[in-house]
Specification:
Rossmann fold; alpha/beta; Alpha-Beta Plaits; 6-stranded parallel beta sheet; Helix Hairpins
Length: 341
């Protein structure tokens, strides 16, 4: 998106046209000796109201005098409009918006290990809300600038890039090379396929989760490079069935995922290589010292699950700890598992 205000673009175009009209007019109505430079100079001193002298010989030409009268009012009107528009531009805060956008771009350039949400519809809005509430760094992308108002309406102080998520340039502006994950959440499966394919090419190690509106496109989106594909109709059907046969379970999970007053979540923390946790037993980790953190399961690097791990279970590198914890407790644990420098 061009950050230069449209109003100023129109003013500059108007001034350029006035200069062209004045130059041609003075050339045609002036004397035979009038050059293009003389006509341009006469135009400049006329619209600026300097009025040094008659440089093109219009004093002896009725047509030249009539043209000059018309041109003076026309040129003066454009100049007055220019200054009033500049004043309105500053007063109305458009200049502030330009600085806001530039500051946003600088913040995004410094980001790493963040998440990119492509498409801020209802699905994307819920994703942004969850990432924001759990303090994950993120960047949102949408075609429409009014989505920024939508985010602010929901008290989500999130940077928004206005543009097409299917384009390399827009994803690069979101620092996709340094991102941890990307969500393709547009209403179009075709767009989601292109977003996934483009993102995978730009960052092969990126984790990508895509929305799928039609289940027949599940395989296509996976083949494009998505790590996980969520079919909304399928998930919705499972949710309705769960509400009927296991209502208390769904209520519990809803509280973990959607309760705005509580930051308690079912979350995960991965044990990286060379972490001080590698080789330790579960009993060696005092989860209670973090607060109310509760270890629920372990997912090993080979994909095996260990539910309700025993105290003598050994922790391995790249194992993910699935736990019930607040945002603060998860952040403390993430710091503890990092390798010592």
């Amino acid at each position: 998106m061009n950050p230069f205000p449209k109003r100023l673009q129109q003013i500059l175009i108007a001034i350029f046209l006035i200069i062209i009209v004045g130059t041609i007019g003075f050339k045609l109505t002036g004397s035979e000796k009038t050059t293009i430079l003389d006509a341009l100079f006469m135009t400049a001193i006329t619209i600026s109201t300097v009025g040094y002298s008659d440089y093109v010989g219009i004093e002896s030409s009725s047509a030249g005098k009539i043209f000059t009268i018309i041109f003076i009012f026309l040129g003066a009107g454009v100049i007055v409009y220019l200054f009033t528009s500049l004043a309105a531009y500053i007063v109305e805060g458009e200049l502030k918006e330009v600085f806001r956008r530039r500051n946003m771009e600088k913040r995004i350039e410094k980001m790493k290990d963040h998440y990119i949400v492509c498409g801020i519809g209802m699905v994307g809005l819920y994703i942004v809300n969850e990432l924001y509430q759990t303090r994950r760094p993120l960047v949102a992308i949408d075609l429409h600038e009014n989505k920024l108002d939508v985010l602010q309406l929901h008290n989500l102080n999130v940077d928004l890039i206005v543009g097409d998520s299917t384009e390399n340039e827009i994803l690069e502006k979101a620092m996709i090379q340094k991102a941890r994950g990307l969500f393709a959440t547009t209403n179009s499966d075709n767009d989601n396929i292109v977003i996934v394919l483009t993102a995978r090419q730009l960052n092969p190690s990126l984790k990508i989760v895509s929305r799928c509106n039609d289940t027949k496109n599940l395989d296509k989106i996976k083949m494009a490079g998505a790590d996980a594909v969520v079919a909304l109709n399928y998930i919705g059907g499972l949710r309705m069935a769960s509400e009927m046969i296991r209502p208390h379970v769904t209520s519990f999970l809803d509280k973990m995922l959607r309760d705005q007053e509580s930051h308690l979540r079912v979350d995960e923390v991965q044990i990286p290589p060379e972490s001080p946790f590698v080789g330790k037993k579960v009993s060696d980790i005092d989860f209670r010292s973090l607060g109310n953190a509760l270890l629920i399961a372990l997912r090993k690097s080979n994909g095996d699950w260990i539910y309700n791990p025993l105290p003598d279970t050994t922790l391995e590198e790249n194992t993910s700890m699935i736990l019930l914890a607040t945002v603060e407790e998860r952040e403390i644990l993430e710091r503890l598992v990092k390798p010592k420098l």
